[in-house]
Amino acid sequence: MANKLVLFISVLILTASVLSCSNQLTYNVKPQRPPVKHDLWDQLLKKHVTAEGLVDYKGMVNDSAQLNRYLGLLSSAHPQRFWSKEEQIAYWINAYNAFTVKLIVDHYPVKSIKDIKNGIPFVNTVWDIRFINIQGQEYDLNAIEHGILRKNFSDGRLHAALNCASWSCPPLRTEAYMAEHLDEQLDDAMRRFVNDPLRNHIGPARAELSPIFSWFSGDFKKDAGSVRAFVNRFADTPIGPEAKITFLDYDWSLNEAR
């Protein structure tokens, strides 16, 4: 019995090690490709995302051929070290958002992205579904967010750029992220998110923040020393030094334009 237990624990450790390695950014993918152009994704966002960041998923379904062409471009060109940092970050943000939309399109209609995992064995969440193949490298959405973007390109603003197809997520932009405008776009995305009264309630005496600021508090503290200081970089009305900070509930219903 003891030997079986040791074997079971060893298998768990090995499995965790393999999964951990699979969630890390690798650059040894051949052949090397030049940076991807994101024009197809930009066109889809301009056409099917409202000014409030809500998505016309029926329109995305109708334009699924164009979406698939864009995802094909992503799948054919894995980021390389010779790409600029901005080119790599823009690629991975757009990939996360576009493959998330792909999940919804393939399962539409759906009430919540969290419902998609139902019936898929050995999958804890929808973000653990390994359906992304980029030049032979397999990824899930968690790998892109946590194993690549957060790990290799530490920047609290990234949390305002990634959209999880849910109502409480930071709004999806009506344009693709582009390397040449990345810093400006990330600033704008976080500023819009922080000052969005549907997702954050900020005042000098009290603040009710998105739980994103709680879940990833370490990222914001690393950038600014505290969540309060980070939010105040972007808030139109800063949180007072003595203000109590609490966190709102998260609405996982689909961020669909109606």
Write up what this structure looks like:
The structure is a single chain. Strands 3-4-5 form a three-stranded mixed sheet. It has one domain. By secondary structure, it is mainly alpha-helical. It contains ten helices and five strands.
Give me the secondary-structure category: mainly alpha
Please state roughly what percent of the residues sit in beta strands, choosing from under 5%, 5-15%, 15-25%, 25-35%, 35-45% or over 45%: 5-15%
Characterize the largest beta sheet: strand count, sense, and whether it forms a barrel.
Answer: 3 strands, mixed
* Shape call: globular
What integer is the average pLDDT?
A: 91
Q: Termini separation (Å)? A: 58 Å
Element order, helices and strands? HHHHHEEHHEEHHHE
Question: Which stretches are poorly predicted, pLDDT < 50 over at least 5 residues?
Answer: 1-22
Q: What oligomeric arrangement do these chains adopt?
A: single chain
The helix fraction, in percent, is 40-55%
The total number of structural domains is 1
Order of strands side by side in the largest beta sheet?
3-4-5
The radius of gyration is: 19 Å
List keywords for this structure.
6% strand, mainly alpha, 10 helices, 258 residues, three-stranded mixed beta sheet, two-stranded antiparallel ribbon, disordered N terminus
Secondary structure blueprint with pairings:
Layout: H1 2-22, H2 39-48, H3 57-62, H4 64-76, H5 85-107, E1 132-134, E2 137-139, H6 141-152, H7 182-194, E3 201-202, E4 206-209, H8 212-215, H9 217-224, H10 227-234, E5 244-247
Helix pairs in contact: 4-5, 5-6, 9-10
